[in-house]
Amino acid sequence: MLSTESHRVDGHDVHEHVLTVPLDHAGATPGTIEVFAREYVRDGQRAAPRLVFFQGGPGNPANRPDVIGGWLDRALEEFRVVLLDQRGTGRSTPLDRQSLTGSAEEQARYLRHFRADSIVADAELLRAALGGEPWSALGQSYGGFCLTTYLSRAPQGLREVFVTAGLPGLATSADDVYRATYAQTAVRNAEFFARYPRDLAVAQRVADHLEATEEFLPTGERLSGRRFRTLGIALGQVSGFDALHFALEDPFTPGGRLRERFLVEVGRRLSFAAHPLYALVHESIYAQGAATGWAAERVRGEFAEFALDAPVFRFTGEHVYPWQFDEDPALVPLRGAAHLLAADATLPPLYDADVLAHNAVPVAAAVFVDDMFVPYAFSRDTARAIRGARTFVTNEHQHDGLRLDGRRLLDVLTGLARR
């Protein structure tokens, strides 16, 4: 059953939808959860078709715009826009250490229902509850992974599809993905330290200091050198270069300890308290009928430059490691479930190559050649495997292209899809 509350914001009707859906759409596991979506309707566009937005992640809620601009402003010129909180995020029965209870086995069984196949089934129930007309869809990053599953499993619900930085490999393993992303992360490290040469010595000094001296984050745990290195996830975004540089600009007190403001900033960036689902299911989004087995940790051993004792300091990127479930207080209670998920060899494939080869839905995708998170080669191959898909391939953007240049990208993609 759908319930809706509405209000007005600067020339827009805003409808907040809550829908009760099955935890398990296959019906084998009892229980229900709620799915939330916020719909924006610009004055004069009440009869417009809907566009549903799938946020990047996994485990991140839809954006909460305090100002309507960028791609959202462009989309509202012709669509009613539905910002979907994917299950387990935002107001969609949020999942965290407070709500995920029971034994590790029970937690892991529950988490099996939080992959893209369940997200797509939720979206289909929401679409039906909102009237049933096929809708347009925009997916950023993991949102594009979800839309590739959508095209595989329920293409009848889609009018047209736009993807930015989010075409997954259809048959690539987690190992394949991490080999590609470690290589690109090494490139981004080199680019970062070439722009900010002083930061290499600063980062190395911080890492060495953390190995020799106990420093504690505001959440109470000791900060390790290996966890400090995971700040490199920022290198996947254009805006992340400067943000990381600013974080490193003055980390030490005159007495040689880490400044409190530095520890506060690092803690804010490293904690998974606001989005634990990201850490829990990150590797499972690449599971295609085989266990991932902590692939990021295993594949890291193939890249000597990312060793803790490497002669030149390097940050890691969008990689989740088993030891983070020992060090992050938000993840410690979920450690057992995380290990069980990593060992689960029964998670089914999420994409149907045969259905995609016969696709009839207009698809347009922006593919970024230098993307640190979604390897270009895999996206290129998937675009070729989806019948009729058209691509805008560019090296002018990193993974945050939609956020920084969303209006133009949506213009390009709508033009491609409708040509």
From TrEMBL:
Signal peptide: none
Domain annotation AB hydrolase-1: ranges: 49-267
A Gene Ontology biological process term: proteolysis
Pfam families xrefs: Abhydrolase_1
Keyword Hydrolase: yes
Domain of life: Bacteria
Keyword Hydrolase: yes
MF terms in GO: aminopeptidase activity
Keywords noted in UniProt: Hydrolase
Family: Belongs to the peptidase S33 family.
Descriptive protein name: Pimeloyl-ACP methyl ester carboxylesterase
Originating organism: Kineococcus aurantiacus
Origin organism lineage: Bacteria, Bacillati, Actinomycetota, Actinomycetes, Kineosporiales
